[in-house]
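Box 3.1 A note on notation
Throughout this textbook, protein chains are presented in two layers. The first layer is the amino acid sequence; the second is a token string describing backbone geometry. Keep the layers aligned when reading.
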Amino acid sequence: MKSPRIPAIALAVALVALALGLAACGQKSEDSSGETEPVSLTLDFYPNPDHAGIYMAQKLGYFEEAGLDVSITSPSDPSAPLKLVAAGRSDLAITYEPEVALAHDQGLGVVAIAALVNRPLTSMIWLQESGIKGVGGLKGKTIATAGIPYQEAFLKTILGRVNLSPSDVKAVNVGFGLLPALVGGSAQAMLGGYSNVEGVDLRERGKQPVITPVDQLGVPTYDELVLVANRKKLEEEPEEFRLFIAALERGTNAAVEQPKAATKALLEANTGLDPKLTEAEMTATLPLLAARTAGKPYGYMDPAEWSTFAGWMRDNELIESLPTPGELLSNSYLSGEIPE
């Protein structure tokens, strides 16, 4: 069981403090006893540059200043984060917009409350040395995939734009082996790698990758990384989530302003990372984390874009019915955003 909740009046004071910018001056928003509210966060994968804002917020004490004691864990199973949140075993999780729609279709009571990366990172990648000039040149070629069902639909859409079908290529599920397949020559292209991870890795190896995010190849745009919470708990304890997102925004801004410190914080969190590669990936990732929708607060998710993408998922038989944006997301916990 979690420890007793922080008194409501303390949370109200914390929100006022944030609104006045006191947190930016380093003042605590804890209650007078110094207690903090425990919050559990499950990542989508092992700690990597996509999580720079989280680890900077943790390292610089921004979560603590917001009255939160945040514990961060990595999943042993990539499908686990959403299930943990739905079951109430994790307060928050990082996942992907397509997974949110799938979770809703399965009846899981989760909702996205902020976007960490508001554009697709998933890309079609091949090497210049392959001689492939465009998607049409994939005919008869072997494409390594991660075996994710909705990415199979990505491939169908991408090929369809040039009048090809999945039968015109050889798609091979290699799981996490995308890079070895492409570099080793067993595949001439790969779908599922990230522009800021696998794309950077290829450049660091001296390769010349051609990297095209899927939304430039016919797939509707979507938010690659989002923060999700349990819908019922959101309604019961909204302040906790507003405070978390405000602290995360501070951490993200700090990472963008201090890339070397952000890289150091990440390397401390995951000692298995290669420092040189991580620094290169961080350089590619920070502009993505810093991106904002004009006139909207940090973390904003565009309901119209979510509706379009959900329609694409339904049309590709990934989900049975078309959900409303309000069933998938809420911008109500962002700083300065008017609740839907």
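The chain is about 40% helix and 15% strand. The beta strands are 37-42, 68-73, 92-95, 110-117, 122-127, 142-145, 170-173, 189-194, 209-213, 225-230.
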